[in-house]
Amino acid sequence: MSIDLMGKVAIITGSSRGIGKAIALQLAHLGAKVVVNYSSSPDKAEEVVKKIHDIGGEAVAVKANMGNTKEIENLFTETLNAFGRIDILVNNAGLMKNRLLQDVTEEDFDKAFSVNVKGTFFACQQAIKYMEDEGRIVNFSTSVNGQMFPAYSVYAGTKGAVEQFTRQLAKEFGPKKITINAIAPGPVNTELFKVGKTEEQIEGMKKMNAFQRIGEPEDIASVIELLVSKQSQWITGQTIRVNGGFI
Question: What are the CA-CA distances from residue 182 to residues 82, 108, 111, 235, 238 (Å)?
């Protein structure tokens, strides 16, 4: 199966590092023009843009806090100004701050839902306005939603909402032949995943899947590659666990 994204324009939110960076580079390798979104890491975003330019691709960095609807609107406007169209949206940006129930503050709750839920929803709203026919949207959930982990309640709750949006919006996007799916990664070797975890905890998570390791960003990017291709036209409204058998 040969995947060709030449002529396509992709917005990847939160793509200055981690999984988002891997996705940006992968889609650029396949020919897509890429918008590298960031909130607070301009230098890292420009590094990703440079890497894409170095392989002969096209990319721009656009700042937008995905918890702010005005900045989300500007992200789409800047994309259209730069490349004239939008074909792919990957809602990768997210926050994860794990605390036991008694320790969760209202600020923790609001921040998580602002970026993970509000950001995803209103990016989809912009997509239905501006995305080309036969476009592709991929949202991010988590395989934690199939487990019962202490301290993950807020994060898992935000991703449960994302899964419901993905299902409910599929038929709204259907008339334009736009697919919308979610992926649910397991543990992945990123800065976000490692925050607050001991080496012992990470080793324990490695033993929970079939391959005795945690995932790498490229493992996730490879699945995104399929979901944004023309070969995935018959997959929509689904949540796909990408976790090496974690659950």
Answer: 27, 24, 21, 11, 6
Name the strand (E) or helix (H) holding 90. strand 88-91
**Per-residue confidence in pLDDT tens, the chain, 247 aa:** 689 999 999 999 999 999 999 999 999 999 999 999 999 999 999 999 999 999 999 999 999 999 999 999 999 999 999 999 999 999 999 999 999 999 999 999 999 999 999 999 999 999 999 999 999 999 999 999 998 889 999 999 999 999 999 999 999 999 999 999 999 999 999 987 887 788 898 899 899 999 999 999 999 999 999 999 999 999 999 999 999 999 8
Please give the model's pTM, rounded to 2 decimal places.
0.96
Closest to 93 measured CA to CA, from 63, 126, 125, 70: 63
Task: Calculate the alpha carbon distances from 126 to 131, 146, 164, 220, 243 in Å.
Answer: 8, 30, 18, 24, 30
Q: Which CATH number fits domain 9-240: 3.40.50.720, 3.40.50.2300, 3.40.50.970, 3.90.1680.10?
A: 3.40.50.720
